[in-house]
Amino acid sequence: MTGSAAEYPPVPEALVVPVYDNHTHLEMSPDPERPSLEYRDALGRASSVGVRGVVQVGTDLATSTWGAEVAAREPRVLAAVALHPSHAPTLAESGELDGQLAAIYELAGRSRVRAVGETGLDYYWTTDEAGRAAQRRSFEAHIEIAKRRGLALQIHDRDAHQAVLDTLERVGAPERVVFHCFSGDADFARAVTERGWFVSFAGTVTFRNAQNLRDALEAVPRSRILVETDAPYLTPVPFRGRPNSSYLLPLTLRAMAETLHTDVSMLAAQISSNTELVYGHWDDEPVVEPPGPFDPHPEGSVGPQ
Q1: Which residues, 6+ apart, have CB-to-CB distance to 188 below 8 Å?
Q2: Separation between Cα atoms, residue 117 and residue 82, nearest integer Å
Q3: Cross-strand bridge partners of residue 177
């Protein structure tokens, strides 16, 4: 990106009642030629607009380890750890999948790791049956990790709605399940929430061509709604296409309140309560000085290269 498209949008008006960002990637940059916001800066901006905390989500062993280390020391961060489903085929082919799943299990026992994710099925990027079988094996292992560790499960579901439901029902879901960046319609939203699971909406719910997501939002009981950025991607309108960060969450929340014909503060209070029900409280453990910026290839790393 060049010019204004590469710039982070201005800080929006602060929320009166704070909320949490259910899913973000503090270490990721939306542009390989441009660094992301330094994570302390990102958290500072978020705090200034009423985003009181975030769930930092891992997608591989390196990012999961970094997220767990940040969360152990930073009071505004809880961590989710996992291998993204799109990595499963390559890891299975190389023989690394089982070893890395074992490492994720160990990370899931660390302080302030409160979820296993993002895990699930992605049939958009993986189209061959061997790759999809590897995804299912990885997904089932992550479900088992979440159950053994007593953690929430954050689902990545792309073009695989029924397969995700079938897997969860066949092996048995953890007590708390969140469909992150929900991409289904109203019927699928009802199928998810009828099972007691949570639905998290990202900036996509503000897109003009996403009426299916707004219909889904209206179909979800208020007690099952969460909100997220999935930063640095999926920036809400009117800044679609520019880099995203947790401080832009109020834009999505206000659009959701408009769709639901409800007060923004009332919706924020409900979502904040829902989020704490899933992950617990952010400030229930002491913290110390946080680590430095994310290093994708730390010395001695056992993560994917």
Answers
A1: 161, 216
A2: 5
A3: 153
Tell me the whole-structure pTM to 2 decimals: 0.91
Question: Could you tell me the pLDDT band of residue 303, with boundaries at 50, 70 and 90?
Answer: very low
Cα gap 114→81, rounded to integer Å: 9
Query: HSE on the CB side for 170, CA within 13 Å?
Result: 10
How far apart are the C-alpha atoms of 62 and 87, rounded to whole Å? 13
**Is the preceding peptide bond at 174 cis, omega within 30 degrees of 0?**
no
Residue 195, both tokens: 């099972």
The answer to whether residues 297 and 305 touch, using CB atoms and an 8 Å cutoff, is: yes
Six token digits for residue 32: 């390989």
User: Which domains are seen in the chain, by residue range?
Assistant: 26-279 (3.20.20.140)
DSSP code at position 283: T
What's the rounded Cα separation, in Å, for the pair 72 and 62? Answer: 16
Question: What is the widest separation between alpha-carbon atoms in the chain?
Answer: 53
Q: Is the pLDDT of residue 297 over 60?
A: no
**E strand map for the chain:** 19-24, 51-57, 77-81, 113-122, 152-158, 177-179, 198-201, 225-227
Residue 191 burial (CB < 10 Å; 0-12/13-18/19+)?
Answer: middle
Beta bridge partners of 156: 120
Q: What is the pLDDT of residues 87-135, one digit of tens each?
A: 999 999 999 999 999 999 999 999 899 999 999 999 999 999 999 999 9
CA angle 51, 195, 211 (to 5 degrees): 60
Strand ranges across the sheet with 51-57:
19-24, 51-57, 77-81, 113-122, 152-158, 177-179, 198-201, 225-227
Beta bridge partners of 154: 178
